[in-house]
Amino acid sequence: MKPFLILIIALLSTSINAQNSNPNYDAELAKELGADNYGMKGYVFAILKTGSNTSKNKEEKNKAFRGHLNNINRLVKEQKLIVAGPFGKNENSFRGLFIFNVKTIEEAKELIKTDPAVKAKYLDVDLYNWYGSAALSEYLKAADKIWKINP
């Protein structure tokens, strides 16, 4: 009876694993993107908020935000930043978000230090560890083909 139970358990286990395996799985791509067995990986999620600088100096503010956009473009080219975008008006003073393609909050803090709008305190940033699809960066290939005007 015991060998029969072991056989049944082994067959069920094989059947369950077969049902959960992906016929489209690309081991090379998964490795290239740093995916775990679930196709996921760790990132750092950033929420950009209104900072403490309330200066009315328009020229200074414009220069800081032009540098902010240039910095975003640089980080995208370096593959350190894979999502960036603004929020609409909201009661939380949230201005935008970033998803950094780095493993630790410490790495993200170093990248944030390079942002002129953060340095000038027009923006403040909260950082969180985030677990998402390792394929997230793949959208950048298409994203670079659909903008007409570079911000």
UniProtKB/TrEMBL annotation:
- The signal peptide, as residue positions, is 1-18
Spell out the Pfam families in the cross-references: YCII
Q: Which InterPro entries match?
A: Dimeric_a/b-barrel, YCII
Specify the superkingdom.
Bacteria
User: YCII-related domain: which residues?
Assistant: 45-121
Signal in keyword set: yes
**Has keyword Signal?**
yes
User: Any idea which UniProt keywords this protein has?
Assistant: Signal
Query: Its family?
Result: Belongs to the YciI family.
Query: What is the name of the protein in this document?
Result: YCII-related domain-containing protein
Q: Which organism is it from?
A: Tenacibaculum singaporense
